[in-house]
Amino acid sequence: MASNTPARLTVLSGPSGVGKGTVVAEVRRRHPDVWVSVSATTRRPRPGETHGVHYHFVSDAEFDRLIETDGLLEWAEYAGNRYGTPVAPVRERLAAGAPALLEIELQGARQVRARAPEAQLVFLAPPSWAELQSRLAGRGSEPAAVQEARLRIAQAELDAAGEFDRVVVNDDVARAADELVGLLTAPSPGLVPGE
């Protein structure tokens, strides 16, 4: 990123199945200079996941300590595990004058908005509801009740798009990644959350 670009905290969120992880992976591939925050989680690593790369895998006690010491910018519980964004690396990145990208769920995006109102919230939307339904159904062999619950949640998450500053449609991963990078580097106030 150009050193004269003001630091900007950008949050990417959107419904389950919209392709947030895929778009962020494409951002990293096409623009390796973009910094993406690594979340902390209490869940166990999955095969192939690396501590500090995919997540910071922490114990429940360590996660409690992060909450108690105001060490998380946001956090949420999902499927019996907790996930959160360590605030120190984000502050360090922004203080150095470089933009920071968070890929988080809607609940976390709302917490960031409350705690860092200068943050730019970007909603990743599917090209259509039918496409999102297809993506969620194609995830595997989940029971119908689980798929229906995911669709209800996804509809509620889609309804929240109006809470965001910008909407990026994920109709083409490379194009969506480039649009997101453009938003990351657009001029904005360079405020650091919590200071």
UniProtKB/TrEMBL annotation:
It is an enzyme of class 2 (transferase). GO terms for molecular function: ATP binding; GMP kinase activity. Keywords: ATP-binding, Cytoplasm, Kinase, Nucleotide-binding, Transferase. Signal peptide: none annotated. It holds the Pfam family Guanylate_kin. ATP binds at residues 14-21. SMART domains: GuKc. Its main location: cytoplasm. GO terms for cellular component: cytosol. It catalyses: GMP + ATP = GDP + ADP. Its EC number is 2.7.4.8. PROSITE patterns: GUANYLATE_KINASE_1, GUANYLATE_KINASE_2. InterPro entries: GK/Ca_channel_bsu (IPR008145), Guanylate_kin-like_dom (IPR008144), Guanylate_kinase (IPR017665), Guanylate_kinase_CS (IPR020590), P-loop_NTPase (IPR027417). Residues 7-185 form the Guanylate kinase-like domain. Belongs to the guanylate kinase family. This is Guanylate kinase. The lineage of its organism: Bacteria, Bacillati, Actinomycetota, Actinomycetes, Geodermatophilales. The gene is gmk.
